[in-house]
Fold this sequence. Notes:
Blueprint: H1 16-28, H2 32-52, H3 62-84, H4 88-98
Helix pairs in contact: 1-4, 2-3
Amino acid sequence: xxxxxxxxxxLKPFKLREKQQxxxxxxxxxxxxxxxxxxxxxxxxxxxxxxxxxxxxxWYLLPxxxxxxxxxxxxxxxxxxxxxxxxxxxxxxxxxxxx
Length: 99
């Protein structure tokens, strides 16, 4: 399992922003059931963290919210990569056509 976009051989020649665009294209090419499953997996991973935020009040809520903002891409990117791995070649071709 890849944890960041740098480790994917097919995406090595691209810049970070381009890699993100290619992953977005690959996600758009997923079938509806795969997209729903991806969203459910993201929700299952993030739900416990956001439920725990209910215990914080006032200014004590700020650090956990900042942490959530930082952790969101760290937790969801590996899932997106795993789901879109089979669509990467098609997404790269479409990205090159758009350029």
